[in-house]
Design a protein that fits this description.
389 residues; mainly beta; 10-stranded antiparallel sheet; 7-stranded antiparallel sheet; 9% helix; signal; Neprosin_propep; Neprosin; Glutamic_endopeptidase; Neprosin PEP catalytic domain-containing protein
């Protein structure tokens, strides 16, 4: 299922030369100096440095000195460390096993993934291969496939939503090209400037430098024209959790074997107006309201999958299997909920005003929306092998 925006790029740094799959890009001295300047902004000094089993390096940065606070709109922003959200959640017993043990930064600091020059060069080089539609600040998600969408909120002509929630089944689809992407996510969009927030999991080598499945976030305040990025590649998202960073590697399910899913929620704090991210009922942090000029409420909600490929064949979506094979084979999303009152309770989504779309049914399909009750709640299956779409 596809949507719209995201960041981009692929390449390998050799001295000041980026070699990519379609040619060679030279990096000028000025560009190299600009990359160094960006790295100094992104890689704040930490009180502690941690290297994970996956080889990722994190700096434990003072929560009040994290890179996102360099955003000009957040010049005088005070980090919200006490959540005023009305709702309370019960932590799932299986959540820690999915998220792992955490990074373990000291209280008062947050884990910031150390950005390498190669990360920035991949982003820069890959964007040069793309059209204007898929520029630096846009999701590289070309064919819109299998979007599950809510259009209206009960009987309101202009819908308003204040939160979205679901459990996302996690897989690790095998991609045939390093510049492809396969993503499962939930998504809020709203405002005349098309502000939006996306969260979920993705396999996207240009961003993460590997073919593993990563937790990701994305935001933009103007449909990706000049603002927005993944995770913390630009100032914006405020981390508050000392143990769990954005971009962490997730365990994946196996076809007709062990299944993993992860609860994700984005909700507006009714008192501050900030948009909070919860993963497995653990608060990760928030997008400050100052980022979104007209994002007092979301106008559209999405659940589903997205794929991107610059050429045929297209990559698998979800588990790579069609919905008719059933849960355990096809990817699922369960317990779909939304919040349509500012500070109100999360409720099961309704049948009214919703559509289920499968844009490339030969490659990807989406099953019907079903209320299975109990563990499953409102659920649907989706995905497919891709191919010549």
């Amino acid at each position: 299922m596809a949507l719209k925006k995201m960041m981009s790029c692929y390449g390998v740094l050799v001295l000041l030369i980026v070699v990519d799959i379609n040619g060679v890009w030279s990096i000028s001295r000025e560009e190299d100096l600009e990359l160094e300047r960006q790295l100094k902004i992104l890689n704040k000094p930490g009180v502690k440095t941690i290297k994970t089993d996956n080889g990722e390096i994190f700096n434990c940065v003072d929560i009040h000195k994290q890179p996102s606070l360099d955003h000009p709109l957040l010049k005088n922003h005070e980090v919200q460390v006490v959540i005023t959200l009305i709702f309370k959640s019960v932590k799932e017993k299986e959540s820690p096993s999915v998220l792992g043990k955490g990074i373990g930064c000291p209280i008062g600091t947050v884990p910031i993934r150390r950005t390498q020059k190669e990360d920035l060069i991949r982003a820069q080089a890959f964007s040069k291969l793309r059209t204007r539609r898929y520029a630096d600040n846009s999701h590289p998600l070309a064919p819109e496939s299998n979007v599950f969408r809510i259009h209206t909120n009960k009987d309101l002509l202009v819908p308003e939503y204040y939160g979205i929630e679901s459990y996302l089944n996690i897989y690790n689809p095998t991609l045939s090209s390093p510049d492809q992407a396969s993503t499962t996510l939930i998504y809020l969009a709203g405002g005349v400037d098309v502000s939006d927030i996306s969260v979920g999991w993705t396999v996207y080598e240009p961003r993460y430098g590997d073919n593993k499945t990563h937790l990701f976030t994305y935001w933009t305040a103007d449909n990706g024209a000049t603002t927005g990025c993944y995770d913390l590649l630009c100032p914006g998202f405020i981390l508050t959790n000392p143990d769990f960073p954005l971009g962490l590697t997730l365990p994946s399910s196996t076809y007709r074997g062990a299944q993993y899913d992860l609860k994700m929620r984005v909700s507006k704090d009714p008192k501050t107006g900030h948009w909070w991210l919860f993963v497995a009922d653990i608060e990760f942090g928030y997008w400050p309201k100052q980022l979104f000029s007209f994002f007092g409420a979301a106008r559209e909600l999405y659940w589903g999958g997205e794929v991107f490929s610059p050429s045929q064949p297209f990559p698998p979506m979800g588990s790579g299997h069609f919905p008719e094979e059933g849960a355990g084979a096809a990817c699922f999303m369960r317990a779909l909920k939304y919040q349509y009152e500012d500070g109100g309770a999360f409720e099961d989504i309704l049948d009214k005003g919703m559509s289920v779309l499968a844009d490339s049914p030969g490659c990807y399909k989406v099953g019907p929306l079903i209320n299975r009750g109990g563990f499953w709640g409102i659920t649907f299956l989706f995905g497919g092998p891709g191919g010549q779409c």
